[in-house]
Amino acid sequence: MLTVSSIPHLQTISTHFTWVDKIAHFAEYSIWTLFFLLMLKQEKKISNQKNLLLIVVSFGILLMIIDEGHQLFIPGRSADFLDMVADFSGLILMTFIFQRIQKNRLNLRSKR
């Protein structure tokens, strides 16, 4: 994540669609959240689902703040509140989807 944030004067791909960078932020944090959730779930050291989600959301918010703050020191870049909104939206949506899938899996197992 911080690799792309370190590119000075980064331009968006399309000038016709001004929200392309927000979609990229949303997708990036959705994918990061999914991978982080799967990694923590695989480790099986956090058995409580609420604690797992709390850890992922907390680290996601910390990463989001570090990422936007880091851009303040890159020429041609700046911190953007709407980037953080897109990041947070991807984080929360993927967390919600993951939680719902886990709940459905548990329900299916208990019915067997």
Distance separating the two termini? 41 Å
Structural class label: mainly alpha
Number of helices in the DSSP assignment: 4
Binned strand content: under 5%
Describe the sheet with the most strands.
Answer: none
The outline comes out as: elongated
Radius of gyration: 17 Å
User: What is the percent of helical residues?
Assistant: over 70%
Count of distinct strands: 0
In N-to-C order, the SSE pattern is: HHHH
Low-confidence stretches: none
What do the pLDDT scores average to? 84
Describe the fold and architecture.
- With 112 residues, the protein is mostly helical.
- The protein has a domain at 42-112.
- 73% of the residues lie in helices and 0% in strands.
- It contains four helices and no strands.
- Helix 2 (20-43) crosses helix 3, helix 2 (20-43) crosses helix 4 and helix 3 runs antiparallel to helix 4 (81-111).
- It is elongated and about 55 Å long.
- 21% of the residues are buried.
- The mean pLDDT is 84.
